[in-house]
Structures are given as structure tokens and as C-alpha cells.
Amino acid sequence: MSANSTSTAAALALIADDMRGVDAVIEMRLQSEVPLVSQISHYIVAAGGKRLRPSLMLLMCGALGYTHEQRFNIAAVIEFIHTATLLHDDVVDESTLRRGRATANESFGNPASVLVGDFLYSRAFQMMVDAGDMRIMRTLAEATNVIAEGEVLQLMNMHDADLSEEAYLRVIRSKTAKLFEASARLAALLAKSSPEIEQSCAEFGQALGTAFQVIDDVLDYDGDVPEMGKNLGDDLREGKVTLPLIVAMQRGTEAERNLIRQAIETGGTEQMAQIIAIVQNTGALQATRAAAASEAQRAINALAGLPLNPYSQGLHSLASQLLARRS
């Protein structure tokens, strides 16, 4: 195990017991009298994943000294919202593989996946009410709405070879970073922290989520295929314009720009190997990693206002080691 993965594992070990508490809530709240609902819900949740969003909230709760069991409920809500977005995403993207196994839509069909995603959203909102805190409900409701807007924005941007870096970041901040931001903010709300601490938590989450997605976009052209459980270039196949492509088009020759433009606009994959080479040879990946590093540093800076303890140090490790991701 590398030093990077050891550092991240040490941070997650701090909340291992908490995560078991979250898993117990998830297991209980996935129950439904409709067998297919439980079957698909368990299928997607059992697929694993990094559980970064609930982990972020639990670490932030630890940093702020909040130990009430309500944190398990809210962490489970966060995971349900995220899982619902994955179910819907895979239908929209016509994905067949996630984390190295068949997607739910591939196994059960699109209609069932969409409807079970709706179930997870509605179950999450039932659970929010249990917290009995209007600010918590408002934060989660706003995040869910912004995520939906981000999904529509991304759909509108498909096959747009003229997409700007600003427009790309707007999608990321809506679609991915918003739930990270909400996860961190919720810990401050649960702990009844000051507005200043709440803002620091929210900024950490937003910056971490942005860095996470930017690195994810790098890995689509430079990742470890067996570890990722998907193929290089999948974003381009789906017509998604991400920062590596934007930078490659800025830096490439006219012929290279035209090749990338044609692939974006048509969804053609015939020149995939050549496009991946262009992205790598123009330094687009290094530039994109630098953008992610800037966001990771913004996250680390936001921790300055939090108490110094093993949990806040764990959050520091999550941000600093994010740049070493290979899957």
C-alpha cells in the first residue's frame, strides 16, 4: 500500500464504527413491500464505491465534536441522494458498466432504474423530516434541486465543442460539488456551529467536490482501467466535453482541434486512441491536474477555521491525497 493510500485509509479508519452505523440505517431504510425496489436498491448500494460524501460528513462531525446518532441518519440520506443520481445518470448516459459490474439499468432495464431512483429520492426526503430541523431540510432540498439543474446543464452541453472552461466548471459545481458542499455544511448545522464555521465547512466541501470531479475527468484519459471498472474515453463516447478536452483544443494544432471537434460533435470513437494521445501530448492532463490541485488547496485553506484534531487532520489528508487518485 502506498503512503497516499495509507494516509487516506487512516482518515477513513477514524469513522469506521460510524460508517457501520450508517450502513445499519441504510439497510433498514431500503426495505420496501415492493420486492423489485429492495432488490435494485440493494444492488446499487452493495456495489460499493468510495462513500466519500457520507464519509466527509462524518469526519466533519468528528472535527466539530458532534456525536449524536442523528449523524447516521443524515449520512444515509446523503448516500441515498447520491445513489439516486447514479441510477438516473446511468440511464441518461446509457452506461452498461459501473465500478466493474453491470449497471442497474443494464441488469434490470431503464424503467425500473428510473423508478427506483425516484424511490430513493423520496425515501431520503422522508428521512430528512426525522431530523426535525428546517435548515437541514432546506440544505438538502436545495442541493437536490441544484444537482438536477446540473444534470440538465450537462445534457444541454453534450456534443458542444465550443464549451468554455467556465461553463464546464458550472456543471461540476452543480452536479458534483453541491452534494459535497451540503455534506460538509450539514455537519456544521447538526453541531450548531457558528455561521463562520458553517461557511468554512461548506467551502471545504465545495472545493473538495470540484477537485474530485476534475481528477475524475483526468482519469477518463489517464486512469487505471481495471481499477476504475470502466474504459478510457467513456466521457467522449457520451459526448461530454471535459477540461482535458477543452485544454487540448486550446493547445493543439488546427488538425488536432478539428479531430477532437469532430469526435465531440458526432460521438465518433474511431479516432479514440489518437485523441487520447493528443490529450496526453499537449499537456492537457498536467494542466487539468493543476486546476484540481488549486481546488484541493482551497479546501485545505478552508480547514484553518476548524478545531485541530485527528478528524480535521483526516479531512486534510482526504484533500491532499485526492490528487494521487488512479481510479
Present the secondary structure layout:
Layout: H1 3-13, H2 16-29, H3 35-46, H4 52-64, H5 70-92, E1 97-98, E2 101-102, H6 104-108, H7 110-131, H8 134-157, H9 165-175, H10 177-190, H11 195-222, H12 225-228, H13 234-237, H14 243-251, H15 254-266, H16 272-281, H17 284-302, H18 310-321
Antiparallel strand pairs: 1-2
Order of helices and strands: HHHHHEEHHHHHHHHHHHHH
Number of helices: 18
CATH superfamily: Farnesyl Diphosphate Synthase
CATH architecture: Orthogonal Bundle
Overall number of domains: 1
CATH fold category name: Farnesyl Diphosphate Synthase
- Main sheet properties: 2 strands, antiparallel
Mean pLDDT across every amino acid position: 89
Shape: globular
* Span between termini: 15 Å
Task: Describe the protein's architecture and organization.
This protein has 327 residues and is mostly helical. It has a single domain (3-318), classed as Farnesyl Diphosphate Synthase, CATH 1.10.600.10. The chain has helices spanning 3-13, 16-29, 35-46, 52-64, 70-92, 104-108, 110-131, 134-157, 165-175, 177-190, 195-222, 225-228, 234-237, 243-251, 254-266, 272-281, 284-302, 310-321, and strands at residues 97-98, 101-102. It has a two-stranded antiparallel sheet. Helix 5 (70-92) packs parallel to helix 8 (134-157). The model has no long low-confidence stretch (mean pLDDT 89).
